[in-house]
Amino acid sequence: MSSQKADPHSFLASAGRAELEGVEGIIFDIQRYSLHDGPGLRTNVFFKGCSLRCAWCANPESQTTRPELAVFAVNCIRCGQFDQPCPDGWRVQEDTAWKQEIQADYDTRARLCPAGGVRWIGERRTASSVMDEVRRDALFYEGGGGMTLTGGEPALQPTFAEALLRLAHEECINTAIETCGQVPWLNLERLLPYLDTVLFDVKQLDSATHRACTGAGNELILDNLRRLAAAGAPVMVRVPLIPGFNASAESLRAIGQFVAGLPGNVVQVDLLPYHTLGRAKYAALAQPYPWDGHARLTDDEVEALAGELRQSGLVVTVGG
To answer: What is the dihedral of CA 302, 303, 306, 311, to 10 degrees?
Structure first.
């Protein structure tokens, strides 16, 4: 499939539009007014399901495609509908088979909870219903903002992702995708005609280290990035800075040299410093936080690592 940009003014026939609007996919959130996942003000659509298992993942609820029961104890208002408050018995442990035994009870609580403290994460939606929400912020997209597909990994649901991107482009809404790159090339290639920005994660150049902390090597990821660059895709590389994994001068120097050697005009790299904002989500899913014991980087440490990339002639920003 060609990677030529689609003409946003070539409006779909009504039958074609209806077909796209009826395409279904699995998402777990739609976040409005985001400033960090593409140019301008963005509406982020979070796809459920990912091909990696990064130990520091801030969205553990994104990793599987199936809906997951979560208990956010801090939201419990002791509504009195049950003998015991909902967090009772919700414990973090490696083996979560026990959740199956109490799932029916908590499913009832999820339906009745007035504060959203108990809820299912993940739902099947049509492209039409998602676009209804994206369209609400259209007035704020004039400065270059738009819709970003993120997750999880959007390219694991290529039919749904393509439907959303085509519908957005028909309405001249700027589009972006955030991808880990661990997907078949054909999945990415089919989306390219409808993308204005590709936010591509590069985490580690050493494949063994990459596999140990994400569950997969980096060969497919790096090959996909080379293909995107060679196709002239609008790529911006993103590097999560993770202490104990890649937050070192050696790792950043290797990434910088690789990116600088790509074909085309990939020159911008965005550093995303490690944070622990996702820790509460692990507790809500009754899962242990796997990257415990790693301190956040100081501003000076982040700036020093950014300097390693700049030595390769790259334009470097921090934080999206």
So the answer is: -150
pLDDT at 69 over 70: yes
d(CA 201, CA 241): 11
Maximum CA pair distance of the chain? Answer: 63
| Of residues 273, 268, 253, 255, the one with CA closest to residue 318 | 273
pLDDT tens-place string over residues 33-51: 988 898 999 999 999 999 9
Q: How many other C-beta atoms can be found within 10 angstroms of the C-beta atom of residue 227?
A: 16
Q: Which two tokens stand for residue 39?
A: 């140019």
Total residues found in the chain within this entry: 320
Q: In whole angstroms, what is the distance from residue 309 CA to residue 320 CA?
A: 16
Helix (H/G/I), strand (E/B), else coil: 17: helix
Predicted pLDDT of residue 294: 86
Instruction: Determine the pLDDT at residue 89.
Output: 62
**Based on C-alpha coordinates, what's the Rg of the chain?**
21
Task: Output DSSP code: residue 188.
Answer: H
pLDDT 10s digits, 2-37: 344 544 445 677 878 899 999 999 999 999 998 889
Q: Which residues pair with 109 in a beta bridge?
A: none
For 21, the 3-state DSSP assignment is helix
CA angle 147, 184, 181 (to 5 degrees): 55
Nearest to 221 by CA among 170, 250, 184: 184
Cα separation of 139 and 80, whole Å? 43
